[in-house]
Design brief:
By secondary structure, the chain is an alpha+beta fold. It has 2 domains: 61 residues, no CATH class; 97 residues, Aspartate Aminotransferase, domain 1, CATH 3.90.1150.10. Helices cover 44% and strands 12% of the residues. The strands form 2 sheets. A 3-stranded antiparallel beta sheet has the order 3-5-4, covered by helices on one side. The longest helix has 28 residues.
Length: 171
């Protein structure tokens, strides 16, 4: 088993249960901190919150049960399969995917070869092809007008249909 501690004894790991554990909205997370900072983190936590809700704590504990981890691993593999379908399909349509997503279920694609206005492009894509993508302006300042975010939160067959619709939209 790998651990962050193999890279140094000054590593902080900040994580949540949102994505992998499918607990979005529960607002529950965890930390791994060097032992010498434990008391400082405890003092900080005491001033930020009392405690997460009891149901969220029980849900987090259940997330580590072997049966749950098995389910989550199969979900992770399915998302990987969807990503591995969609990323090259988008590239074949003229989008540029600079980085393969490793921790979420979105592809942030450069559409600069197709448009200089991702906001308008996203609206046209939705209205004309029935495909939803989110313009880059919602995700920061790195050339947002040239980026779209595509979610792969649906089955591969629906993603293939979306790719077909985009292909027809592009002509």
């Amino acid at each position: 088993m790998q651990t962050a501690l193999q890279f140094g004894d000054d590593i902080f790991v900040v994580q949540s249960f949102s994505k992998y554990f499918s607990m979005t909205g529960w607002r529950l997370g965890w930390l791994v901190v060097p032992e010498r900072f434990t008391r400082d983190i405890e003092k900080l936590a005491q001033n930020l919150f009392i405690s997460p809700p009891t149901p969220a704590q029980y849900a987090a504990l259940a997330a580590f049960a072997p049966a749950t981890l098995s389910i989550l691993e199969s979900r992770r593999k399915e998302f990987q399969r969807r990503r591995d379908f969609l990323a090259p399909a988008l590239a074949n349509l003229g989008f540029h995917v600079a980085a393969k997503p490793e921790g979420a279920f979105y592809i942030y694609a450069n559409c600069g070869g197709l448009t200089q206005d991702s906001d308008r492009f996203a609206r046209d894509l939705l209205e004309s092809a029935g495909v939803a993508a989110t313009p880059g302006l919602d995700f920061g300042s790195n050339a947002p007008e040239k980026h779209l975010r595509f979610a792969y939160t649906t089955r591969v067959e629906r993603l293939a249909e979306a790719v077909d619709r985009i292909r027809r939209f592009l002509g």
